[in-house]
Every structure is written in C-alpha cells, then in structure tokens.
Amino acid sequence: MRELSFRGTTVRFGTGRSALTAVDGVDLVVPQGQVVGLVGESGSGKSTLAKAAVGLVPTTGGEIALDGAPLRTRRDRRRLQLVFQDPHASLDPRMSIGESIAEALPGRRGRAARAAEVARLLELVGLDPARARSLPSGLSGGQRQRVALARALAAEPEVVLADEITSALDVSVQGAVLNLVRDLQRQLGLTMLFISHNLSVVRYVSDVIAVMYLGRIVEAGPADEVLSAPKHPYTRTLLDAAPAFGVALDDPVPADDARLDTEAPSPHDPPPGCRFHRRCPIGPLTRPERTICAETDPQPGAADRPHRAACHFATEILEVPAR
Amino acid sequence: MGRDQWKAALRNPVGAVAAGLLVLLAILAIVAPIIWGDAAEETDPAALSQGSTSDHPLGTDALGRDILFRVLVATRYSLGLALLATAICVGAGLILGVLPAVLGRRAGRLVTATVNLAVAFPGLLLALFFAVVFGVGARGAVLAIGLAGAPSFARLVQTNVAAVSGRDFVAAARVAGVARFRLIARHLLPNIGEPLVVNATVLAGGALLAFAGLSFLGLGVQPPAYDWGRLLGEGLDRIYINPAAALAPGVAVVIAGLAFTLLGESIAQVVGVRAVRRRQPPAMPPAAAAAPAGTDAVLAAEDLRVAFPAPGGGWTHPVDGVSLTVRRGETVGVVGESGSGKSLTALAVAQLAPDTAHVTADRLEVAGVAPLGRTGAEVRELLGTKVAMVFQDPMTSFNPSMRIGAQLAEVTRVHERQGRKPALARAVDRLRTVRVPAPERRAHQYPHEFSGGMRQRAMVAMGLMSTPELIIADEPTTALDVTVQRQVLRLLKDVQAETGAAVVLISHDIAVVGQLCERVVVMYAGHVVEELPVGALGAAAHPYTRALLASVPDLATDRERPLATIPGRPPDPADRPEGCAFAPRCEFADDVCRTRPSLAAVGPDQRAACWHPRTQPLDLALDAVTGGQA
C-alpha cells in the first residue's frame, strides 16, 4: 500500500458556455494505510475525482500520483480500484460472482489457483465461498456490495476508492458493510479514499476528513478536529444540517439566516471570490464589511491556514457545534 | 428468463404457430430434396405446361416438371440462402456495431458516421446496387441482401452497446483492467443479446422476402437452380392458365416469412417485459360495517391490504393488514426499509396505488371520505383538494414541458374552476409561502430550471394551492443534500403549523423522522411492528425498532466499537415466514413467535407487535433523544 496524491487535479467537461469545471485544482493526499473521508454535496465533484483517479474520466490538468510517480498507463491505473455506489448496477447480471471476481485477478494463473483465490476473497468479505457460482440477482444489496469489495481487492490494489458504497443500501445493511470496511482496512492496512455525502458515515471510518465544495477541497484535517473544530463555515453548515435525535428543527443554526442563499450556485457559473460566500453565515451577506469574500479567492494560501481551509477567516474561532 | 417462460411461450397461440411452422419448414428443408429431388427434375414431355391433374396436383411447368415437387424441394435452397444472407447481415452488423467501442474516439466516430450514412439509403436500393456489383446470381444476391441489411443492424448494435457501456459494471470491468475484446465478448454482447436475437429473426423473414423478390426480378437464383422466387416468376407468366403454379411458391414464401416473424414476436415476448393482465382479485372477507368516523381523525385505516397478482398465480401482499390513524394537525412518521410497504401504504391511502394493485380495508377514511368502492372520478372530486402528495423525485412528478406556475394554477382551475389570472396569482403567492425566491419570475420557469430543493418546495406549494387536510410526503428529502433536506423539513414543519394540516412523512431515515414528527410508526414486511411517540424512541420495545436505531451511525457513535447489525435480510413479500416476520432475524425469537403477534400496548401511547417486547432503555437513543450527548 502506498500514498495516493492529487496535485492540482482538474477535470473539465464540455467547452464554451456549457463548460463545467467539475474538479478544480484539487490537492489531496491519501497517506499510506489511512482512510481519507471525502464529503460534499451532490455536484461537488467528489465522484468525478475518484473516476479521474482510476481513469474513467480524463483529467484536464494537474496530476495524480502514487508514491510520487504520476499514473499514466492503464497498467498504472490498475493499482487503484474503485468500488461503485450501486451494487445492483456494478456487477454484470450475466456473470457469476466468482467469475466477476476472478476477472479482476492480475496475472495468469491456473483454474484451481483462481478458484482458491476467489474463495479466499469471498471468505474475506464474509460470504460463503460456495456461492461463487451464484448470479448477482440471487444476492441482496449488502451481499452484492461485499462482492464488489472482493472484486476490488482481487486486483491487489495499492489504494481502494469507495464511492458512496452505502448510499444504495438499506440502513440495516449499511452498518454491516461499514463494519466490513473498517475490519478490512485494519486487517489489511488498506489505503482508502472513502467518499460519501453522509458525515456520520464518513466519520465512522475515516482518519482524515476532506470537505469538497463546488469542485474544490475547502477543508481537510484529522477527522476528530475537523468535526469538533471546523475551520470552514461550509463544514460547520454541513454539521449543523445533519439530522440527529434530540436536535429539533426549530433550533436555529447560523445557516438558517434568511439573508443567505438557500441554493448552491450553478457549477457552470461559480461566483467570484469565495465560492461559498452567498451561503456563508459569516460572509458578506451577514457581515457587509467582509467584501474580501466576494472579491478575492481564498484558495491560494489555504495551505498556510489551519485544516488548509479555503476561508479568509479560518483563524477566527467558529463556535463548536452543540453536538 | 427461465425454462418455464419458454414453455409458456409455446403454449400461447403465436408461439405455438411459430414453432409448428418452423418445425414443418425444417423437416421439409431436410427431407424434401432427398425424397422428391429427382422427381422434381424429371421432365415429362407428355405433360408440358399443364394445369392441375391427378398426376400433378399443381400442374407442370414448361418442361413438364411437377410444380408441387419443385416448390417442396425449393424449401432447402430458399431457406438456406435467406439464412446465409441473415448471417452475413448479422456478422457485418456486429462488427460494424462493436467497432466504435474498440477503436479510439476518432476512428469510432468515423465508423458511426459511415453507418449512419448507409442507414439513410433505402435497403432495396443498396441490394440492387450490390447485386450489380457482385454480379447476377445466387452468390451476388446473398451478399447484396446481407450487406444491405448490415447498416441498420449495426446501428441497433451500436445503440445497445452504447446503452450498456454506460452502466457501472462495464466501468467496473475497465477499472479492474479487463482487456477491450474480453470486455466486448463477456460484458457487452451477452447483455445486448436479447434485442439482437429478436431482430435477427425478423431480419431472416425479411431476407427471405427480399430474396424471393430478387429471384423474381431475375437478379437472384439463375437456372437451372431454382428457389421460390424463381418459381413464382415462372408461374406468374401463366397465372391465367394455371394459377396454382404462381400461388404455391407465393404461399410458401408467406408461410416461411410468417414463421420467422412470429418466432421473433414470441422471443420478444419471452425476453421483453410483458404487461401484467388485470386479474380477478381474491375473495376477501366482507368489510365490516363502517364505524362512525372518528371525530378528529383525518386518516383512519383499519386492516389495510394491498395485493398484487403474483407471477406464478396467486397474490402477494406487500401491505398486509396495516392499521393507521392520524389525527388532525398531527405529524406522523412512517419508517421502514425498502420492501416494508411504507410507500405503498401511502399510495393506497391517497388512492394512487398502481392499476394492478387490489386495495382492501376493513375501514378506510381519508379526510372524512371513504374512498374504497367509489369510482376514480368521484374520488378525485372528493379528495383532490384535501390530500396533497409530495414525492421523492419532484422531477418526475412535474410535467417537464409545462411552466411551474401553470402547473400549480391547474390545480385550482380544475378543482375550483378559477380563471387563469387569479389561479396564476395564487400560484405565485403559494410559491412565496414556500419561500421560493423571486416567485413571479420563477413561476414562468420550467421544472428543469429549478434545483432539487426548489422543485420540492414547488411540490409543497402545489399541495397548498387548495387547503389540504392531509399532506403525505413520501421520502421527500432522500434525493436532497443535507443542507437542503433541513430546509425542506423546516418548510414542512412551518406549513403544518400554519395550515393545521396533518403530515405523514415516509422515510427510511429514522433520524429525519425523529426531527419532524411527533409519532413514529415502524413498518416491517408489510406490517406495523411498533407505534410510539418520538420522545419514547429510547424506550423502543420491538427488537426491530431497536436494531434500526442502533445500526445507524450518527456524529456521536463510538468509532472503536463495531456498529450494531441485523443479520439476514428482509423477507420477500411473496415468501414471508409464518407468524412474526422479523423472527428469523431476531435474537429473542422462540416458538411463540410462529404465531403472528398483534399490536398491543407496551407503554403510554406506545404499541408493539412483539411477543417479547424489550423493557430495557436503549442507551444510545435515550441519550440522544434527551440531548444528553457531549
């Protein structure tokens, strides 16, 4: 297992007026043997970043490197494996789960060796090896996601990228898959990029949390610190909005301020300055003197701020969330 | 598709006829030349160009050969040539269709463009062109018909390949490093096989006809060889003398063409989606006399059942005896996993269950109306203004080609017969109520110009166009981001406070329900398993409710401990265990649980359907509900 690093990674779709920069100069390091959780809303570019890493979408700028060596060829990319969101779509309905897993095994090996390896992997993800011949249609969502994990591990990857792997699962199954991810990571020392829109899920498995907004990483740091003392107001907004027992909807949070925009801006036409400023509870819409937010992009210089926060006022201590 | 479906296809008239004709043709093609081959070549100088006689039932041709024998013997050649042409067409089509997926982007585009251009040429014109290029004769005709059909088949392959290439499992195979050719052979082709097989079968029928046409025109089979087309051409010269000489090969062509087309049709029926026919519902116990309406109940359902015809006969009951009461102004959350029947319960209550569903209840009253047994028009009239629905995906519940304002206005224009202007004014006003910014401008926009959260607001506004007594929100925030989810939930809460309408919130997320609702109804496998006030969630009695609460991580979950899990999976509605449906997954289950428990009081305002209700407070939820977390 090695270290995966994104350096100025940019992904742009389309040209001219319809152009969209889905990932905009992302710098992110996934250290060896650690889980980096990537959170953000839909459209923030987190899935695109993962797809760019495994080569499913071409990058338009920057580089993606494994242990400092840029990934260029298909062979390079194979050292990263992606687990998809929907296990109903990510397994070939015409192929037995054993074949699906065997297909990802690198190198040539005999029939018996392949079968043994498939059995070992199925056992590793908590499935009965005798089921290798069953088709995906005979499996539940949770079991299919286990198969998808086994297939990713079959390729003997240096880094595993998990893209919303519990979002399509029922809550009673989600827990089991999260437990599996955590066990596998500890057992095998996996290096992982774990993507989810759900902060609670990301928190449960991650060592480091990175928050993405409109194609950029706006805050990244050790999981506990990011969640207990966020430095970017967007992280704070996400934390406040997460549903939890005992927190009534009536209790106002800073982001409920009626002066703020309720919608995320269009990624086709991101606002100038700080991209979050029209939704920011401590930005120019609530504090008119903070014109800098609407004029100057806080991204440069983020590396010098705590949690590499893309916020001009990151050093200002934000109130710690009530939970 | 299983073997049973193929058997069923054989039993249906179309399939039976197709199979019968094909078997007949196959036997003829094999046997006829062996038995009658010589007889068909035998010239009879004594009987030239005869009509029907006892020796020659269909007469003879100019050389005195028996036409019946010749038609029968020609089966092999005619079918063989048609199948060969089809094979060429399918082969060339597959190669052309798959090429764009194999080649790079540029070369792929070139192939696609060429195929598109070729599709634009009429097939017969191409066939004639190729027939001239390859020379007149059977070989030329086979190549001509095969190649002329290739572009349209290639296009079909391309479209299907493109559709499957976009799916995750193909992306997953790419990431796993599967080589291109293997990707095509193992992942793409098997998954587009069905439409291709159907199409190839129909193509074979077409090729047969085209071949007969070319031979008839003299461009196909040349003497001394003969096929049906040439026999038809020869017979047509003497149609007034001996009509049978022209009719017999014609009939043969029609029968063979029909056989292929019907075969294609039956394959399509087996592999494609078939409409479920409405079946007579099962006999239900007669509904009890309607109890007098509860004074403050806006929704009262007793023993509500929703049944669907099962594929193998019989009925499945995704909703199996749900009793639910919602008082005026109350906010009730219905929680359950997929397949628990929660959404179907809501749809049945709002009289929106699918057509094939059969809804029964001992008693069902919605806003003072008993909708069961009334016609659709009556129900719409009575409930149209009293019940509002908010769906998970507002994109599909708005008409994409109509402006938002006009869609909202339609509600009052239909139900209150208001004019266009006042209706639109009210629509703008309601959009303002749900805090859509710049409502005048946005009322003139189309649904796709709204973000997910704004569409959901507009959906709520639509419900507010009249004065609903009940708002049913089915997973209204599942497709939304957390920040937007919070806004929409707050909006529902405000609307509820302002209008006094009762809200039923259906969700898989017990935390969301806990935030908005006063009471929670937990569903599992078509039953209500527990009903309790939100404040009592920490004292949940049913093991399923407790497991649900414990298995969802929140921002305070201990990261060092594994999450609680529920072993097994929810039962299939068609195959539910006897007794308590949760028993196979329940650690407390014993023999008593083989009898189905009914809802019984386990605490103040709390009822659970469990033989072994838990009394221990649930530490995690209790802490959270009382807000006692650090």
TrEMBL record, chain A:
One Gene Ontology term of the molecular function aspect: ATP binding
A Pfam family per the record: ABC_tran
Record-linked SUPFAM superfamilies: P-loop containing nucleoside triphosphate hydrolases
Keywords: ATP-binding, Nucleotide-binding, Transport
GO biological process: peptide transport; transmembrane transport
Span list, region Disordered: 255-275
Sequence ranges assigned to domain ABC transporter in this UniProt record: 6-239
UniProt xrefs under InterPro entries: AAA+_ATPase (IPR003593), ABC_transp_ATP-bind (IPR050319), ABC_transporter-like_ATP-bd (IPR003439), ABC_transporter-like_CS (IPR017871), Oligopep_ABC_C (IPR013563), P-loop_NTPase (IPR027417)
Family: Belongs to the ABC transporter superfamily.
UniProt protein name: ABC transporter ATP-binding protein
Species in which this protein is naturally found: Jiangella anatolica
Automatic annotation (TrEMBL), chain B:
Keywords: ATP-binding, Cell membrane, Membrane, Nucleotide-binding, Transmembrane, Transmembrane helix, Transport
Source taxonomy: Bacteria, Bacillati, Actinomycetota, Actinomycetes, Jiangellales
Stored Gene3D superfamilies: MetI-like (1.10.3720.10), P-loop containing nucleotide triphosphate hydrolases (3.40.50.300)
Cited Pfam families: ABC_tran (PF00005), BPD_transp_1 (PF00528), oligo_HPY (PF08352)
Identification of the protein by name: Peptide ABC transporter ATP-binding protein
Protein family per UniProt: Belongs to the ABC transporter superfamily.
Any single biological process term in GO: transmembrane transport
GO CC, alphabetical: plasma membrane
Transmembrane feature ranges: 12-36, 79-103, 110-134, 196-219, 239-264
ABC transporter domain span: 299-550
NCBIfam families, sorted: oligo_HPY (TIGR01727)
InterPro entries referenced in this protein's UniProt entry, alphabetically: AAA+_ATPase, ABC_Ni/Peptide_Import, ABC_transporter-like_ATP-bd, ABC_transporter-like_CS, MetI-like, MetI-like_sf, Oligopep_ABC_C, P-loop_NTPase
Organism: Jiangella anatolica
PROSITE patterns: ABC_TM1 (PS50928), ABC_TRANSPORTER_1 (PS00211), ABC_TRANSPORTER_2 (PS50893)
Domain (ABC transmembrane type-1) ranges: 75-264
Location within or outside the cell: Cell membrane; Membrane
Membrane topology annotation: Multi-pass membrane protein; Peripheral membrane protein
Keyword Transmembrane helix: yes
GO molecular function: ATP binding; ATP hydrolysis activity
